[in-house]
Write a structure and sequence with these properties.
Elements lengths: L1 H5 L44 H13 L1 H12 L1 E2 L2 H13 L13 H7 L10 E2 L3 H13 L11
Antiparallel strand pairs: 1-2
Helix pairs in contact: 3-5
Length: 153
């Protein structure tokens, strides 16, 4: 094996400790603040974000409500009413969940859904797409108490 002959050489900056000669812009301690480095799973309620990052997330969410609402509907394949979506949004924002360590700008729709106490689906309908059709099929196959029917919507 060539490593036995030449010794192990660290080839990636992320594996080194401390500064790297010739790469003054690289600070290995900056990665600790990166949301993609050692991510925290949703469900964690530890408040860890800096005030600046939390404010950035809050503004991002407020300025992109419609897009986030559309993403939520696509994720669950259910055409949630505007009333339900607004209730989810208000609960998320009023509870300051966007300050949780697990919430990043890459998982906002999932975080809004995940951190809810409950979501009533009464009167909502499944969207007819691949995932929606799969969801309907599974409800009809596995549920003893519910049935998903095509109502023509």
């Amino acid at each position: 094996m060539i490593q036995n002959q030449t010794g192990i050489t660290v080839t990636y900056a992320k594996h080194t400790r401390g500064k790297i000669s010739g790469f003054e812009f690289w600070n290995p301690f900056d990665k600790e603040d990166c949301s993609l480095y050692n991510p925290t799973p949703l469900g964690n309620t530890e408040i860890k974000h800096s005030d600046e990052y939390s404010e950035e997330l809050r503004e991002l969410i407020e300025n992109n409500k419609r897009k986030i609402f559309k993403n939520i509907r696509e994720v669950v394949s259910i055409n949630l009413s505007t009333q339900i979506i607004n209730r989810l949004y208000d609960s998320f924002m009023n509870s300051n969940v966007y300050t949780y360590k697990a919430v990043t700008k890459y998982n906002i729709p999932y975080a809004i859904l995940y951190y809810q106490q409950s979501i009533s689906l009464y009167g909502q309908y499944i969207v007819e797409r691949i995932l929606g059709d799969l969801l309907s099929d599974r409800i009809n196959e596995k549920s003893r108490f519910f049935k998903a029917e095509n109502t023509g919507e």
